[in-house]
Amino acid sequence: MGLIARLHARLIPQVSTDGEPLDRLLNDWDALGVLLRVSMGVLRGLPVRLGARHSKGLLLVGKGVTVTGAQHLTLGRGVKIEDHAEIQCRSHRGVVLGDGVTIGRNVSIRPSSYYGHEAGEGLTIGAGSCVGALSWIGASGHVTIGVDVMLGPRVTILPENHVFERLDVPIKAQGVLRRRVVIEDDCWIGAGATILSGVRIGRGSIVAAGAVVARSVPPRTVVGGIPARVLKYRSQTEGEQRLLAALKGQDPGLAA
């Protein structure tokens, strides 16, 4: 095994849970390019790791990444934060990124204001999950994303709503209502989807591209549209089928 192959075999598994074996790359130049990119990312990640509340293993950080309040950040092994992502960690419960989490390019994670206003709750992302490019997670109300969850590009998660009952007071001055958002394990959230406050998306569910999810979604359910409605169910037991049929009949927000 050549030097490039040995370096690749040693370094890549530490920063990628699904790293490509060298023999599937086109040539040694491709492997060298990957190694250089990873090496630079590891170097950029060192200051973030040193400032974090807790970290283990290597951290890969892209160009132009902004991480503030790193003392509220907990990092698992092999976390990757891609170019120009922004993570504002200051929050009551902090930001927790599990093993192998990927934060895509130009993602914004904003639990709190940069200017000293009320701190938000924070964000937890489970192992193996990824957040697609240009996504926005406003974690003012706590956001929990489970294990092996895929968020496509331009996904928006908004765990708060503006209060607007009074007509004699500007909406901006009436404050906000924060409610937790939970996306359980093994979900796929399509490109451009929006998840609103108080929503729980059940394990193994799929949200179609462009959907606006305003109500909670049962496990193993495919939803889409504005507002999101049930499109189909993934395989269930007979008991689960009866329960979901009842939910479909009772809840207009889940009706097909």
TrEMBL record:
Listed name of the protein: 2,3,4,5-tetrahydropyridine-2,6-dicarboxylate N-acetyltransferase
SUPFAM superfamilies per record: Trimeric LpxA-like enzymes
Pfam families listed in its UniProt record: Hexapep
Signal peptide: none
PROSITE patterns named in the record: HEXAPEP_TRANSFERASES
EC number of this enzyme: 2.3.1.89
EC top class named in words: transferase
GO MF annotations in UniProt: tetrahydrodipicolinate N-acetyltransferase activity
Lineage start: Bacteria, Pseudomonadati, Planctomycetota, Planctomycetia, Planctomycetia incertae sedis
InterPro entries, per the entry: Hexapep (IPR001451), Hexapep_transf_CS (IPR018357), Trans_hexapeptide_repeat (IPR050179), Trimer_LpxA-like_sf (IPR011004)
Entry similarity comment: Belongs to the transferase hexapeptide repeat family.
Keyword vocabulary terms for this entry: Acyltransferase, Repeat, Transferase
